[in-house]
Design goal:
Strand order of the largest sheet: 1-4-5-8
Shape: globular
CATH superfamily of the largest domain: Butyryl-CoA Dehydrogenase, subunit A, domain 3
Strand content: 5-15%
Number of helices: 12
CATH topology of the largest domain: Butyryl-CoA Dehydrogenase, subunit A, domain 3
Distance between the termini: 38 Å
Number of domains: 3
CATH architecture of the largest domain: Up-down Bundle
Length: about 375
């Protein structure tokens, strides 16, 4: 059996990559970062025109009804171009939450808007994915939310936010709800938006028409696969930049790429990162067709790619020597994106522990 991409999937990735080449060059990324713009309107509009935000929305609600593997191909291209655009929450997590646990009315109200790009969504599930932090956590009582959620994804300017409470329930909160305070967090990665959400008797709609616990699990699994794919794209771009630089930079009258040590560095980066691709592809495939393996494969993909991504980011920078640390080349955008991806929705250490627990090797938390 040959496991690979279909022609449609190849065309999808080429189309997204070609568009991002034009709309998200390094100059545009630098401009957005300088302005603190983590969801560039022009980039989001172009992605909406390609149907990106409707990928995971069922066809009955105006979407494309595609699978997580398709979404992973897009995430890889977004990471490759360090695109300052919302995707994981709006295009993946929120549709999964609404389709899995939302009522018919909630689905009809929001899924078509998400699919068209008319509405943006955020996701506040970090405590469920990464573990509770002191002072963080949301409680639900009588249709009201109280507490605090850290590292909410794409919540800035979101029309709706999917919030997980301490008991594992899911809730839909309007972005402009009374009592909701959003504090923008500054991270090393200036291309992605993170927020602290503070809830003071905030009115919320429960997502209780399906299995909320299972839906939350699927949101976490999908998010981890997207982050792994994003790191894959960013890592390969760093490798390509390192190889290109090694073929141009001269020392002692020779291009540095002719030195065996530099060749080994580039070869090792490629040999370490490429196996992550098949693991991510299978994790995306399992999410839709082999549900009993979905959580384990998502954990493996996230943990391995996070570790390899850090190695690639460091080594590619070293190949550039002192130039690798300058803003002129902009390597730091990919370096920092990989760094943030590593920690979001569970560090490699935590995710590996979950994988061990799923296989019965250790006790679950």
């Amino acid at each position: 059996m040959e496991f690979g991409l279909s022609e449609d999937q190849k065309l999808l990735q080429e189309s997204i990559g070609g568009t991002l080449d034009k709309i998200s060059p390094l100059e545009r990324v630098r401009e957005a970062a300088d302005k603190g713009e983590t969801q560039a309107a022009d980039i989001a509009q172009a992605l909406a025109g390609l149907g990106v935000y409707g990928m995971m929305v069922p066809e009955a609600h105006g979407g494309l009804g595609l699978g997580l593997l398709d979404a992973a191909l897009v995430a890889e291209m977004l990471g490759r171009h360090v695109a300052p655009a919302g995707f994981i929450a709006t295009a993946v997590m929120a549709p999964i939450a609404l389709a899995g646990a939302g009522s018919k009315a909630q689905q009809e109200a929001w899924l078509p808007k998400l699919a068209s790009g008319e509405a943006k969504a955020g996701a506040a599930i970090a405590e469920a994915a990464s573990g509770a932090r002191e002072g963080a956590g949301v409680t639900a009582t009588g249709g009201k939310l109280n507490g605090k959620s850290l590292f909410a994804l794409e919540a800035e300017e979101a029309d709706i936010i999917i919030v997980a409470d301490k008991a594992g329930g899911l809730h839909l909160v309007k972005g402009d709800a009374k009592g909701l305070t959003e504090v923008k967090l500054t991270s090393i990665d200036l291309t992605r938006g993170l927020s602290e959400l503070q809830f003071d008797n905030v009115e919320a709609e429960p997502l209780s028409s399906g299995d909320a616990a299972l839906t939350l699990r699927r949101m976490i699994d999908a998010g981890r696969v997207m982050l792994a794919a994003d790191t894959l794209g960013a890592g390969w771009m760093m490798i390509e930049k390192a190889v290109e630089y090694a073929g141009e930079r001269k020392q002692f009258g020779r291009v540095i790429g002719s030195f065996q040590a530099v060749k080994h560095m580039c070869a090792e980066m490629a040999s370490e990162l490429e196996p992550c691709r098949s693991l991510i592809w299978y994790a995306g495939h399992a999410f839709d067709t082999v549900p009993e393996e979905a959580s384990l494969m998502a954990a493996h993909a996230k943990a391995l790619t996070s570790e390899v991504g850090r190695f690639v980011a460091r080594t590619a920078t070293e190949v550039h020597g002192g130039m690798g640390f300058t803003d002129l080349l902009g390597l730091h955008y990919w370096f920092k994106r990989i760094g943030l991806n590593r920690q979001m929705l569970g560090s490699p250490e935590r995710v590996r522990h979950e994988a061990a627990a799923l296989q019965g090797w250790v006790a679950a938390d």
